[in-house]
Amino acid sequence: MSTEKQRPQRLRRRLFDILERDLPGDHIADAVHYFLIATVLLSVTGAVLATVPSLALREKWWFHWGEFTALVAFTVEYGARLWVAPEHPLRRQLPPLVARAHYAVTVPALIDLAAILPWLISLTTELDVHALLVLRLVRFLKLARYSSGFNALYLAVRRERYALLSCFIILCAGVLIAATAMYLTERDVQPDKFGSIPEAMWWAITTLTTVGYGDVVPVTTSGRVIGALTMVSGLVMLALPIAIIASSFSEVIAKHNFVVTFSMISRLPPFSDLDAPVLGDILPLLNSRSFDRGHQVVRRGESTAHLFVVLQGRLEMEGETGFRALGPGDVFGLLPGHTKASPVPVRAVVKSKILAIEENELHMLALRHPAVIGRLSAAARDRDADDTG
Amino acid sequence: MSTEKQRPQRLRRRLFDILERDLPGDHIADAVHYFLIATVLLSVTGAVLATVPSLALREKWWFHWGEFTALVAFTVEYGARLWVAPEHPLRRQLPPLVARAHYAVTVPALIDLAAILPWLISLTTELDVHALLVLRLVRFLKLARYSSGFNALYLAVRRERYALLSCFIILCAGVLIAATAMYLTERDVQPDKFGSIPEAMWWAITTLTTVGYGDVVPVTTSGRVIGALTMVSGLVMLALPIAIIASSFSEVIAKHNFVVTFSMISRLPPFSDLDAPVLGDILPLLNSRSFDRGHQVVRRGESTAHLFVVLQGRLEMEGETGFRALGPGDVFGLLPGHTKASPVPVRAVVKSKILAIEENELHMLALRHPAVIGRLSAAARDRDADDTG
Amino acid sequence: MSTEKQRPQRLRRRLFDILERDLPGDHIADAVHYFLIATVLLSVTGAVLATVPSLALREKWWFHWGEFTALVAFTVEYGARLWVAPEHPLRRQLPPLVARAHYAVTVPALIDLAAILPWLISLTTELDVHALLVLRLVRFLKLARYSSGFNALYLAVRRERYALLSCFIILCAGVLIAATAMYLTERDVQPDKFGSIPEAMWWAITTLTTVGYGDVVPVTTSGRVIGALTMVSGLVMLALPIAIIASSFSEVIAKHNFVVTFSMISRLPPFSDLDAPVLGDILPLLNSRSFDRGHQVVRRGESTAHLFVVLQGRLEMEGETGFRALGPGDVFGLLPGHTKASPVPVRAVVKSKILAIEENELHMLALRHPAVIGRLSAAARDRDADDTG
Amino acid sequence: MSTEKQRPQRLRRRLFDILERDLPGDHIADAVHYFLIATVLLSVTGAVLATVPSLALREKWWFHWGEFTALVAFTVEYGARLWVAPEHPLRRQLPPLVARAHYAVTVPALIDLAAILPWLISLTTELDVHALLVLRLVRFLKLARYSSGFNALYLAVRRERYALLSCFIILCAGVLIAATAMYLTERDVQPDKFGSIPEAMWWAITTLTTVGYGDVVPVTTSGRVIGALTMVSGLVMLALPIAIIASSFSEVIAKHNFVVTFSMISRLPPFSDLDAPVLGDILPLLNSRSFDRGHQVVRRGESTAHLFVVLQGRLEMEGETGFRALGPGDVFGLLPGHTKASPVPVRAVVKSKILAIEENELHMLALRHPAVIGRLSAAARDRDADDTG
To answer: D277, exposed or middle or buried, with CB in 10 Å at 0-12, 13-18, 19+?
Structure first.
């Protein structure tokens, strides 16, 4: 079973692989990855320290050289990502320029642009406006692209966005009520601190979030009683978002599922060369599972109700004649059209990612995209032929 | 299967639908909904800013116009809700005036009244007492009516109200013990701050809730040791309510159940035209479940132990002759009187809400309200006849 | 099936029932219960306010009368609890004086004693030492006796006491490390605040618990870096106990089990008249479950692996000839010696507490205490005879 | 079945058992254990108090004697642990000196060394540099060796280290954004407090972690709005690590598994005398489970899919002819080569630790280390022979 790939535009393909860092064990991609992270960190640190007057960084020649290097690196990265955009499986059918325009309006691309724009402007117009400063630090957000943990956090927060919005409304109601009560109580005693509801709201938000600066505190007995009630309510204000995110997060983590990305799928024989619309239709149905070294994918005697496609890593299947190795692109488990999968145990040899398609999803897939199912069956049959032959 | 409805009082019915915003895709209801939310936010903001002397909002003509508009909007809303109250399924059998009186004493109606009362009083009596200020901000609570996340939060807190009460007692005990200890330790050194136990309690509550203003701090060594112990206890004080709400909330969320409301049910053929007492008896037994696009309601080969009634959305049932669409009011799954449901897979095509009645609840229902079961069976038989015919 | 009880000492028995408040719907017990709670709250409030010089409560005649009334009430309560101590099922075999001595050294009895002791001393010795003040507020802890939520909280904390101890050690290590680092950094700049490690520890504990008074803050750049690291570590310090208690609490709650008390058991026919050692041997094996109104105890068609004894409330069993009511002391489910329980559905009519004994526990019980099993079987047979006859 | 052990070097073996404290009920090991804990606590307390000038501890003769005693105790402990290092099962095949070198570079050994090194240096060089102070307090970390709860905490934190890293990046981004916004807003009003971004970062970290010293607070209206947003974001910053650790911790606890240590295994007949490489290969596959007194290991009628090896404690197996006691080293449950285990119930008589090897792990073990499986089978057969004979 050999992987068939388009030969042209090899360099662009190679650059895409380096920037996406999808191939495990690609040392050049790793080097580029860590170089970019280091450049982001150094350049953000520089921008922060440049505001300290005593350091006078802006008068140092090496500071400007460092800034220039980072700018060049980010500009090259932005240009490179723009150039390789047509390599992305979802945009493979589009004309290159349209593909690049599509990429340019994605959030990561806009962050990348925002990271270089203020420098480009200050270079060309010879002015360094402070309003651009915030935009300049945006490049810190580039780090989000390189961290795999953000996904789970983002999913956990997004899953409960309505509950969190309710929390925020409750917090606002709490601030309003506490501020009004304190305004009515303390405005005659401390007119400079509780002279209006907005001023009292500063105290209320400080207290409800348990920050408690202490710059504004009630001094009357009734004010302190209101303050005490506000603090106790603050504990519940604290408890609600924590409870919501915690319960959401534990469910997200419990699934141990990771959304499959286009670049993972587009490398696998059964899925490569699919049209973008078909891929876009299939992808939301797919989830991958991670298995640590030594973990059982299929247990002894268990007849699984999933079709598995290996995405990354290496597994061993315990056949009657010994162990058989499984690598990326290999298919095992329930074959479409068969009622039962043969109950052979499979175990991960190294940390592996596997695409698990449930029986019901398979039926759905068979009805909508029979070609994909045909390829999956063919891939599995090839395997069996290898085994028996 | 045609839905039979009363024809008279169409306008009142339409207004009820708009105010309750139950029909998906009703753009007029959406507009009214967002207009009311915006009016609430603007009017609360205005009331808050009116207390800032420097802005002198009360001297601006447009401020009074805005206030007046909001007042009119809220009064109209209150009157309209009062007028359509007899449309509510639970009050349909009551005489209109009794139905309105019933509605007028519910919590949302009282909040709506409290939102307009202070303005009405200040308009009629030409006086704007500050004591009414708190009442005026009550209108912020009107937002709770429009947020769907409150339900889960409220259920989570209510479910553990005894545990939370215990937490509060523990917190009180902690405040008492810490304040007494600090009073005994520091009252000679700082008589102005720790001169009595109530004064020391201000420090204790500030510390136990980790707010820590810093306006009252121990200065002696033994006072600081007591302070350190209080802070560490504060961590546990913090942990208890968070733990309670978190575990409660995750269970509430885990069920993915939403309590069925009267207006949902009263639209569905099997339940419409039921007497209010019968509805009131059935409703607490019913829970609805939400299914996202593409989720399986009944899995392939699974013989479900539930009778399902579609509340909202659209589903597809995979029959032998192809897919069949299911919409609001359609019944599928376990039929009362049959031992087993036919194991056909059902999947949500768009986000749907489904009423799932467990086998045991069905038996209970059959014994108490055979008419309802008769209708459910008839609805399901109509379906099957459609299918085979 | 009639309940056989000892007739003598009816008054002592009645008083025991009132003080323990075990019989549902006992209005005298409820009145006594709420009177005692109110007396505790009033007397603690009085003791707190008595320390405020401006109120001069000690010079008011009614304050002394209130104090005296509370003292009398608590003394009478203490005496009464001491007198009825032999009624407790665990102490029923002991001679009355020994039973009372046993009770007098339990924690609740000692709290009750501590609540009256300082007053008794100040009455007899005409001196009101401040050192007794803390002891006097101990009576607040009497409330714990009346709150049912404490049990779950206590179990949740106790279950993870080793993990919480580890947390405390980690917190101590954090305080030590942060204080030492800050001492080395800031002792020359702020010798009055960071002049020794114990002084720096005050800052460290204030920061790590996120209380942050602000009376001691670092001013140098390196001190602020250390402070920032300490704050971030503080978040984890906060997270650990919350995580531990939350996970423990959700498991405690998930079981929905409540430990069976002696007074519950000793009222039920199958268990009454058992010797204290036998009861003490059986009790740790027993757990009760709560069922809300309408909840299924045994589902239709389910053959339960438990023997159930109704403790409180009322249930209905759906037999072939109609519903049959079950009340306290009734036995149903798996009979010892039978392989399978007859699969009849049982449902709670009101909120009920049921003792559920697992099949394995039944075997264990049968081997160790055949008499108890004999009684359970007899009780169940009586039921069945009632049913078929 | 008699345990065969090497007779030589009995003293070293005994000392190893005392220091590792693995044998339950070893009173000498307990005494040594608590003596070392007390010495650590006293010596750390001494080092902390020595920095208080007013106490002048360094001029007290008994302080130096105490210091000397602790130094001697730790040095003896370090030497003893070094001497007995070859007794560790993993190092048993190595030459003694190599085994000791291996031990000397482990983390606990380095902590032990760091605990005595500063004293040794100050003794020999007659100088007490302050830079060594932090190192000296390192001995507090020796306590981690004695606490069993650290393992669960460490595993919980380590399991989610990527998610926690993402949290940290989010926190850094929050600090950056808040500090920049506040720098732009307040730098003209309070140039001494918000004069540069690093200075504003001090305020931002103080606020986001809800510490809130109050030494730096915004005074302008726009600054306070930014402050309020920062505080609300701070709640989410707080919620994320708590949620992550809580969900991770509850999963770690839910397993109730404890990693098996070498010293546990090396005492058991089926595993003793194995070569270090074989042990090192097997150990990661093994988990032990704790069972409290009275808990069921195998339930009645359940045919377990595990092979069990008793590690600690005592159990009773309910055979046909009565109960049979099981102790450390005994094997029961699924025998390798048999398809089904005989379904006899087993229950823990005292708190016990049991090694549970899953059926799949057994197959894996059988393929890789047939010798181990042979011993397990032999041990189980011995048992059965004892029973039937």
So the answer is: exposed
